[in-house]
Predict the 3D structure of the following.
Amino acid sequence: MNIVKITFKVGQKIYEFGPTGEYEISNLSGEDLMKFKKYFVENYKMIFGISVPTEWII
């Protein structure tokens, strides 16, 4: 299993978090990995009422 760290910027603030749980991501393509990350980021933004577009930090 791999540890996933997601970093993104919304407005002037940079967020970094790791989703809890174990995820097998070693076989994901770059596009699938972005879909995986986007799911967590969009839920995070919805919970905290953030509506500014996401800028990805790779």
About this structure: Strands lie at 6-10, 13-17, 54-56.
